[in-house]
Design brief:
alpha/beta, Glutaredoxin, Serine Threonine Protein Phosphatase 5, Tetratricopeptide repeat, five-stranded mixed beta sheet, 5 strands, 48% helix, globular, Tetratricopeptide repeat protein, Thioredoxin-like_sf
């Protein structure tokens, strides 16, 4: 992109390695992907800016980057440039109404986040598109230049199949226009089982989260959010203890082992390599008859749920799967 500052390291254009990050404890702040607050008429009312993101949020944020670009502000609160970046980016992101997300991580409180991005110091802003980081800013710029940069970012995202929208991830910002005018919209509570699931996810208790979503589906089989949550919690549970190098080595050495191929596909989806994951399992389905084919097909359908039925990569893979089956 034309606005990338030269001070940002070029290797950030490669895959994002978050293996050094440890899970964060549960908190009270709404987590990425959680339903946002709504106004009385049911329309979204909130912000797409997560002010105090933690290490534990980064995995979910990277998953969301398969739907919308995610801007991560690697903040250094002692540096005035960080506040300038916040003042510049927050209203611009909210103005896009869910086509972008901004998350602010305090790197002075946790330098491991900087290390994960290959940086020695903040502040810096990195955009993540489908799991791939792209350096964006390390200093404030004029508003018209920022608007141009965000337009280019959204265009690049659309070219890579990242063109969705997400609901608000936080309450309205205090400095947002109209935030204090009229009656403040109340954020409805999550359904009890959804709340249990979200708290379990925040704490890294993925099996408990799956159990809560299963109970929610038992109560209401048409609960689309519970179905989506169950699939995503399942992916996190399956990959939590994986040794990525060992899994990929096994996948390369055992192309006819359905579980080996499923494990690699899970890692690919988690890391944003969605098309690679889908292609791997479609290819396995095409080349293997019998029960193994069905196992791969069922897992692929579950990964479609993780990525989302509206994602163009899902639609393309469904067509490829149909051709492989028939």
């Amino acid at each position: 992109m034309s606005q990338q500052p030269p001070a940002m390291p070029s290797h950030l254009r490669g895959a994002l390695d978050l293996s050094a990050l440890k899970p964060a404890p549960a908190g009270q702040q709404p987590r990425p992907g959680a339903p946002g607050p709504t106004a009385a008429d049911g329309a979204p009312a909130g912000s797409w800016v997560l002010d105090q993101a933690t290490q534990g949020d980064l995995q979910q944020l990277i998953q969301l980057s398969s739907r919308v670009p995610v801007l991560i502000h690697l903040a250094a609160p002692s540096n005035p440039v960080s506040q300038q970046l916040d003042d510049l980016l927050a209203p611009a992101v909210d103005a896009h109404g869910g086509r972008l997300i901004l998350a602010r991580v305090d790197t002075e409180a946790d330098a491991q986040v900087l290390a994960a991005f290959g940086l020695a110091a903040g502040p810096a802003v990195v955009a993540v598109l489908a799991g791939q980081p792209v350096p964006v800013l390390n200093q404030a710029v004029p508003r018209d230049q920022l608007d141009q940069l965000l337009d280019e970012l959204l265009a690049a995202a659309a070219q890579n199949g990242v063109s969705g929208t997400v609901p608000p991830i936080a309450p309205p910002r205090e400095d947002a226009p109209g935030a204090h005018g009229g009656q403040e919209p109340a954020a409805p509570a999550l359904p009890p089982l959804h709340l249990q699931a979200q708290e379990a996810l925040d704490a890294g208790r993925y099996e408990d989260a799956q159990d809560a979503y299963r109970r929610a589906l038992a109560e209401n089989p048409a609960d689309a959010e519970a179905k989506l949550g169950l699939s995503r919690a399942g992916l996190l549970a399956r990959t939590a203890a994986m040794d990525a190098d060992a899994v990929r080595e096994r996948g390369a050495s055992a192309p006819d082992d359905v579980q080996a191929q499923i494990d690699v596909a899970d890692l690919d989806v988690l890391g944003g390599h969605v098309e690679d994951a889908f292609h791997r399992l479609v290819r396995f389905v095409a080349g293997h008859p019998g029960q193994e084919r069905n196992t791969a097909r069922e897992h692929l359908v579950d990964l479609y749920s993780v990525v989302g039925d509206q994602d163009p990569r899902t639609a393309a893979s469904r067509k490829a799967l149909a051709m492989a089956l028939f």
